[in-house]
Amino acid sequence: KDPRTNAELRTALKSSDEVEQFNAVSTIAYREYTAENAAALLEYLKSGRGTRRVNNIAVWALGELHAHEAKEYLQTLIGNDNFDQYEVTKAIKKIKGEIPKPFWRK
C-alpha cells in the first residue's frame, strides 16, 4: 500500500539505497502494468546499479507485470550467473503466457 505515484517509484529506482530500490521494485510489481514502469525496470536492470538481490526482484517484477517488451532482454540473462536462473526462466514463462496471471491481475 505504498502511497507514492508511479513516477515517484520510477525515480526511487535511481536511489543509491538498496532498500529504497527494493521497495520501489516490489511496489511496481503489484501495480497495474504500465509501459513506463516496465521500461523503468528494464533500464534499472541494464544500468548495473542494483545489487544481485534487487536485480532478481526486478526480474520477478517484469514477469509479474507480464511485460512483453522485457522478454528479449530476459532471454539474454539465461546463463548469466549474476541472476537467479529460476527467476529468469519463470519470468520468461509468465511473459509468454505459460504461467497464468494471478486472479487479481487483469
Protein described:
The chain is an all-alpha fold. The protein is 60% helix and 0% strand. It contains six helices and no strands. It has helices at residues 6-12, 18-30, 35-47, 52-64, 71-76, 85-96. Helix 4 runs parallel beside helix 6 (85-96). It is globular and about 30 Å long. 31% of the residues are buried.
- Determine the oligomeric state from the structure: single chain
Radius of gyration based on Cα positions: 13 Å
Overall average pLDDT: 95
Task: Give the CA-based shape.
Answer: globular
Largest sheet: none
Structural class, from secondary structure content?
Answer: mainly alpha
For the termini, the CA-CA separation is 18 Å
Task: Note the run of SSEs as H and E.
Answer: HHHHHH
Number of strands: 0
Structure summarized in a few sentences:
With 106 residues, this protein is an all-alpha fold. It has six helices and no strands. 60% of the residues lie in helices and 0% in strands.
Helix and strand arrangement:
Blueprint: H1 6-12, H2 18-30, H3 35-47, H4 52-64, H5 71-76, H6 85-96
Helix pairs in contact: 1-2, 2-4, 3-4, 4-6
Write out key terms for the chains shown.
single chain; 106 residues; mainly alpha
